[in-house]
Amino acid sequence: MKRVIAAAAILSTFAGSIALAQGKVPFPVKARQGQMATMAMSLGVLGGMAQGKTEYDAAAAQAAANSLAGIAMIDPDILWQDGTAEGTASLPAIWDDADAFAAEWAKFVAGAEKAVAEAGTGKDALGPILGAVGGTCKSCHTSFRAK
Amino acid sequence: MRRFLRVLVLAAVLAAGIGLWLTRATPLPHDTFAGLTGDAARGAQVFAAAGCASCHAAPKAQGDAKLVLAGGQRFVSDFGTFLAPNISSDNTHGIGGWSLNDFGTAVMRGVSPEGHHYYPAFPYAAYAKMTQQDLVDLWSYVQTLPASDTPSQPHEIGFPFSVRRSVGGWKLLFSKETWEMDAPTPELERGRYLVEALAHCGECHTPRNALGGFQTGKWLAGAPNPSGQGNVPALTPNVLTWDAADIAYYLESGFTPEFDSAGGHMVAVIENFAVLPAQDRAAVAAYIKALPAPTD
Q1: Mean of the per-residue pLDDT values for chain B?
Q2: B25 in a domain, yes or no?
Q3: CB nearest A147 (choices: B230, B254, B271)
Q4: Chain-chain contact of B245 with A51 (C-beta, under 8 angstroms)
Q5: Over 90: is that where the pLDDT of A94 sits?
Q6: Could B249 and A51 be called an inter-chain contact, meaning their C-beta atoms sit closer than 8 Å?
Q7: Are B191 and B67 contained in the same domain?
Q8: How high is the pLDDT of residue A23?
Q9: Contacts of A108 in chain B (CB under 8 A)
Q10: Cβ–Cβ under 8 Å, residues B236 and B221
C-alpha cells in the first residue's frame, strides 16, 4: 500500500511538472503579456503612420490611441500579482519597489491620455505622442524588465 | 653550479624587467594635440555619441542631472564590480585639474595622469580610434559641465585583477589599432567610426574570452549580459533581420519593428543616438547591415 501511495505521489508530481512545462501559464502572466502585445500593436499603428509606412488616417489613429487608454485603465495590481515573477521578464523590483513601479505606470497613463487627446488631430501629432509614450516604455523597462 | 645560479637569477631579472617594460603605462606624447583648437558645441555631439554620461552620471540621474558626471554607477563583471569615477569638472574629486594631454591619455590610452592603467571597463580600447579633433572638442565640452564633490569609490575586485599592472598585459594582448570591417563608402566609414570608436558597441555586443578580450570572428555577434541576466543580442545578419530604416528608427525611438521597446542599458544608448543627426543613425544602420556573419 505504502508503495502504491509513493508511486502515485511520484506520478502526480510528474504530471504536475509536465503541465507546467506544457505552458500552464498563470492568468496574470498571460494577461500582462497580452496587454503588452496590445500596447505594442496599438503603438505600431501610430508608428507606421508617423514613419510614412501607412497613410495617416485620423479615425484609425484615434482608435489606436483609445486602445492605449483602455490598457491604461487596467489596474496594474491585477496584472502583477504577488508570486508571478518566476520564469517571466518581470523583475522582483516591481514588487520590492512598488512605489517606483506605480510612478512608471502613472507616466504611461499620462502618455495614453496625451495620445487620446491628440492622435486624431493630424500626422504631426504622432511623433510627440510616440516620444512621450515610448519614453515611458523605456524608463519602465530599464528598471523593471529583465532584458 | 654557482655560475648556473647566477645565470638563472640574471635571466629572471631580465624577464621581470622585460615584463615590466612591456606592461608599462605610456602617456601620449606631450605635443599630440598641438595646433588643434576645441569646439565645445561639436564636443557635445562627441560626448553624446561616446555615451560618457551613460556611465559617469550618478545612479538613476534624470534630465540635466545626467550632465553632472559624479560617478557611482556599478558595473558587474566576471572580474569584479567596477564603480564609475567622478569625472566632473571638480578640481579635487573630478578632472578639473587635468590638462588636455592628461585627458587624451586617459581616454585614448587608458592611462591616468599618475601613470597608472585604468581598467578596460572604461572603453579606451574603442576610444583609441577617436580622431584627435574629436578628443579636443570633447575636452572643450566636458570642461563646461558642472562640478561635483562626490568622491570616487574604489572598485570591488579581487587578486590578481586588483594589480593594475596586469591591465598592461591585457592591453598588450587585446589592443588593436585596425578596424574590424572595411568601409568603402563615406557613410559606412562614418557608421564604422560611430560603432567601433565612439559608441563602443562591441563592448557589450561582442563575446569575450576568459581573459576579457574579444573573441575573434565574433564581432557584434551577441554575448551574455555581464550582469548575469539574459543576453546582449547579436547585430550580425545571421540573427538581426531588421532593415536599415528599422535600425535607424530603433536608435531614435527605442521601438523595435514590432513596437516592443528597448530596456536596460540600451535605453541610455538610444537616448544618446536620439540627439545625434539623422545621418549618423542612418550611417550606423548601414554599417550594421554590412556586417559579416560570425565565423567559428
Answers
A1: 94
A2: no
A3: B230
A4: yes
A5: yes
A6: yes
A7: no
A8: 63
A9: none
A10: yes
Q: Is B15 contained in some domain? A: no
Q: Which domain, by its residues, includes B261?
A: 186-289
Average pLDDT over residues A109-135: 96
Of the candidates A47, A131, A141, the beta carbon closest to that of B259 is on A47
Which of B174, B209, B227 marks a domain boundary? B174
Which of B259, B262, B271 is the closest to A44 by Cβ?
A: B259
Q: Which pLDDT score, from 0 to 100, does residue A18 have?
A: 43
* Separation in Å, CA of B7 to nearest CA in chain A: 58
In a domain, B41, yes or no: yes
- pLDDT in the model for residue B238: 94
Q: What is the pLDDT of residues B244-293, one digit of tens each?
A: 999 999 999 999 999 999 988 899 999 999 999 999 999 999 999 999 99
pLDDT average, residue stretch A61-67: 98
Phi-psi category of residue B35: left, alpha or beta, with phi > 0 → left and psi -120 to 50 → alpha: left
Contacts of B282 (CB under 8 A, 6+ apart): B187, B244, B248
Q: Which candidate, B169, B205, B207, places its Cα nearest to that of B78?
A: B207
Give me the interface pTM, i.e. the ipTM: 0.77
Alpha-carbon distances of B152 from A10, B57, B93, B155, B242, rounded to whole Å: 56, 12, 7, 9, 41
Whether residues B164 and B51 share a domain: the answer is: yes
Q: Does B261 touch chain A (CB under 8 A)?
A: yes
Alpha-carbon distance B162 to nearest alpha carbon in chain A (angstroms):
30
Q: Which one, of B274, B255, B201, B210, lies nearest residue B232 by Cα? A: B201
DSSP state of B22: H
A20 vs B231, higher pLDDT: B231
Number of domains forming the structure of chain B = 2
The domain boundary, picked from B174, B196, B216, lies at B174
Q: How far apart are CA A39 and CA A48, in angstroms?
A: 14
Do B215 and B176 touch, CB atoms closer than 8 A?
Answer: no
Topology of domain A27-144 in CATH is: Four Helix Bundle (Hemerythrin (Met), subunit A) (1.20.120)
Distance of CA A15 to the CA centre of its chain: 30
B194 and B164: one domain? no
Residue of A32, A51, A91, A137 to mutate for B, most B C-beta atoms under 10 A: A137
Q: How far apart are the first and last CA of chain B?
A: 50
